[in-house]
Design a protein that fits this description.
It is a single chain. This protein is mainly α. It contains 22 helices and two strands.
Length: 572
C-alpha cells in the first residue's frame, strides 16, 4: 500500500471523528483540559496541557480534511519526484505542528507548534532546489523568526504569573500592564505569521514551494496560525492595540487586492487573494467578533485549498507555465477543472449562497452596523470590489481569453487522481457556509440596515466585476499612457515596493558594513597588528633560538673564550 493512501485514510478518519466530537462539544457546551506536569522551575510549573473545545476540534477536523485531500492529490502531482515519501512525511509533520498549535492553551507548547510550522515550511519552500527557492525560503524563515522571538519574550514575561497557561489569566489580569505587553508581543507574532504589513512580502515569495504545499499553507495551516492565535487571545487586546490592528489589517487587505489586479503569475494572484482574506479576518477580529473571524477562516480554508489545487492542475498541464498571459480558452480542454475554479472564484467573491457569501456578507453587514468612521467603511467596500475585480480578471485570462501557449500542446484532463482529490472538496465549497452558520450561530443574527447599505455589497460586486473586465482587456502600446500604466502596475504588483524594502532594504547596509569591516579591519590593520605580525615575530625568535640550539658547542666555546677574556682583563 502506498504511503499517500495510508496517510490519506488516517487523516480522513480522524477528520470525521473530530467533526462529530466538535458537534457534541458545541451542543453540550463542553470544554476539556488535559494536564500533565513536566517539571517545576522557580515555582513556575511547566505543564503539557491540551485544550479540547468545539473550536479546536472543528478547526482540527478542517485541517485534517484538507490535508488528507492534498496528500491524495500529491500522489499524482509529485509523480516524477524521486523522494515522494520524504515530501509526504514533511507535509504530515507540517500538519502535526499545526495540530499542536491548535490544541495548546499554553505558550510553551504553542511555541513548539509555531516553530515547527516555521522550520518545516522552510524545508518545503526550498523543496525545488534553485536560487529563487533558497531566497524565498530564507525570507520566509527570517520573517517568521521575528514572531518566534516575540512569543519567546511573551513566555519570559508570563513567568511573572507563575504559569504559562494563558487561558487562566485573560479575564483576571486583563488590565495588568504585563498582560498588555504580552498582548502586544502576541499581536506582533500573529502579524508575522499571517503576513500583515510590513511583513507581507514573504507570502507571495513562498509560492516557490510545490503547489500541494501552497494549497495547504494558504488554506488551513501556516498563514491561519496567526489569526487563530489572536482568536484565542482576543480578550486581552487593549483599545489602542485593537485600533492599530484594524488599521494595519485594512491596509493589508487593500494593498493585496490592488496588487493582485496587476500580477501575472497565477499562484501569486491566489497568494495575494489569501493575504486579502487574512486582512479581512484580522479586521473583523479587531472590530470585536472573533466567532465571525473563525467562521470566515473555515469557509475560506475550503475554497482556497481547492483554488490552489485547480491552479496546480492547470500548471501541471501547461508544462509548468504559471504566466496567465499564456493561458486562455482552457474551458474547452479542461472543463471540470475550470468549473471547480469558477465555483471557488465565485465563493471568494461572495456570490450569494456559496460558502464565502455567508461569512463575507455577515462580516460586511456587521461592520456596517458598528459604524466606526468613513475610512473603515470605504476601505472595506473597496477591498471587496477589488476581490471581484482580480477574480474576474483571472477567469478572463485563463478560461475565456485567447490561447497563447505553444501550437503543439496536449492540454487535457487525464489526471484522475488529482481530479478525485479536488472533487472531495467541491461539495463543501458550495455547502459549508450555510452548514457552519447553522451550527455556530444557533441564535439567528438580526441585522437591520437601510436599503442602500443592504444593497451596497451587490453594487460593489458589480462595479468590481466591471473594473476587472476592463482591466483584463487593457493592452499596452507605445504611448505615454501605457508607460504611466506600466509604472503604476509595477509599483502595485510589487506590493508598494515591500519586497525591496524587506530584502534589499534590510540586508544592503549590513552587507556593505561587513565588506568595509572585512577590508579595513579583518584584512587590514587587525591582520597587520594581529595574526600576521605575531606570526613574523614568532618566526624570527624561533629561528634565532634555532641557531643557538643547532650550534650549542660553538656557543659554549665562544662563551668560555669570552669568560676567560673577561677574567684576564680583571687580573691586569
Amino acid at each position: 500500500m502506498k504511503i499517500t493512501n495510508i496517510f490519506f485514510k488516517i487523516l480522513f478518519i480522524f477528520c470525521i471523528s473530530n467533526f462529530f466530537m466538535s458537534l457534541y462539544f458545541m451542543i453540550m457546551d463542553y470544554c476539556i483540559l488535559i494536564e500533565y506536569e513536566l517539571f517545576i522551575l522557580n515555582s513556575s510549573s511547566v505543564v503539557m496541557i491540551i485544550l479540547f473545545d468545539w473550536m479546536s476540534l472543528l478547526f482540527m477536523s478542517f485541517v485534517m480534511f484538507i490535508s488528507s485531500m492534498v496528500i491524495y492529490y500529491s500522489e499524482e502531482y509529485m509523480l516524477g519526484d524521486g523522494f515522494l515519501n520524504r515530501f509526504i512525511f514533511l507535509v504530515v509533520l507540517f500538519v502535526l505542528s499545526m495540530m499542536l498549535l491548535i490544541i495548546s492553551p499554553n505558550l510553551i507548547s504553542i511555541l513548539l507548534g509555531w516553530d515547527g510550522l516555521g522550520l518545516v515550511s522552510y524545508c518545503l519552500v526550498i523543496y525545488y532546489q534553485n536560487v529563487k527557492s533558497f531566497n524565498a525560503g530564507m525570507l520566509t524563515a527570517l520573517t517568521n523568526r521575528i514572531g518566534d522571538v516575540a512569543i519567546l519574550m511573551a513566555i519570559a514575561w508570563m513567568l511573572n504569573f507563575g504559569s504559562w497557561n494563558y487561558i487562566y489569566y485573560m479575564d483576571l489580569m486583563k488590565n495588568d500592564y504585563i498582560m498588555e505587553l504580552i498582548g502586544y508581543l502576541v499581536v506582533l507574532a500573529a502579524m508575522t505569521k499571517s503576513a500583515q504589513i510590513p511583513f507581507s512580502s514573504w507570502l507571495p515569495a513562498a509560492m516557490a514551494a510545490p503547489t500541494p504545499v501552497s494549497s495547504l499553507v494558504h488554506s488551513s495551516t501556516l498563514v491561519t496560525a496567526g489569526v487563530y492565535l489572536l482568536i484565542r487571545f482576543n480578550f486581552i487586546l487593549s483599545d489602542f492595540l485593537i485600533y492599530l490592528l484594524l488599521f494595519i489589517s485594512m491596509m493589508t487587505m487593500f494593498m493585496s487586492g490592488l496588487g493582485a489586479n496587476f500580477e501575472y503569475d497565477l499562484k501569486k494572484i491566489i497568494a495575494l487573494s489569501t493575504l486579502s482574506q487574512l486582512g479581512l479576518m484580522m479586521s473583523i477580529l479587531a472590530l470585536g467578533d472573533y466567532k465571525l473571524a473563525f467562521f470566515h477562516l473555515l469557509t475560506h480554508a475550503l475554497f482556497k485549498a481547492l483554488l490552489f489545487m485547480c491552479a496546480g492542475n492547470i500548471i501541471h498541464n501547461m508544462g509548468n507555465c504559471q504566466d496567465i498571459r499564456f493561458m486562455g480558452s482552457l474551458m474547452t480542454s479542461m472543463p471540470l477543472t475550470c468549473t471547480f475554479f469558477n465555483i471557488c472564484n465565485f465563493s471568494l467573491c461572495g456570490l450569494p449562497f456559496l460558502s464565502g457569501f455567508y461569512s463575507k456578507d455577515l462580516i460586511v453587514e456587521f461592520m456596517s452596523m458598528n459604524y466606526l468612521n468613513m475610512f473603515v467603511y470605504v476601505i472595506f467596500y473597496l477591498s471587496i470590489g477589488l476581490t471581484v475585480s482580480y477574480s474576474l480578471r483571472l477567469s478572463y485570462y485563463t478560461l475565456i481569453g485567447d490561447f497563447n501557449f505553444l501550437s503543439l500542446s496536449g492540454v487535457s484532463e487525464t489526471s484522475f487522481t488529482m481530479l478525485k482529490g479536488m472533487s472531495g472538496l467541491i461539495f463543501f465549497v458550495v455547502f459549508s457556509g450555510s452548514m457552519l452558520s447553522w451550527m455556530m450561530f444557533y441564535e439567528p443574527i438580526f441585522i437591520c440596515l437601510p436599503m442602500l447599505m443592504k444593497m451596497m455589497t451587490l453594487l460593489v460586486i458589480i462595479t468590481g466585476a466591471w473594473f476587472g473586465y476592463e482591466l483584463s482587456k487593457f493592452k499596452l502600446g507605445y504611448n505615454i499612457k501605457s508607460l504611466k500604466f506600466l509604472m503604476i502596475s509595477l509599483f502595485l504588483a510589487m506590493m508598494w515596493n515591500m519586497p525591496l524594502i524587506s530584502t534589499l532594504g534590510v540586508n544592503f547596509y549590513p552587507l556593505f558594513l561587513g565588506k568595509v569591516n572585512s577590508k579595513i579591519l579583518d584584512q587590514g590593520w587587525l591582520e597587520y597588528y594581529g595574526g600576521k605580525n605575531l606570526k613574523s615575530l614568532v618566526m624570527n625568535y624561533s629561528s634565532l633560538f634555532q641557531i643557538f640550539s643547532l650550534n650549542h658547542l660553538k656557543v659554549y666555546l665562544m662563551l668560555m673564550l669570552l669568560w676567560m677574556t673577561y677574567l684576564l682583563f680583571n687580573i691586569f
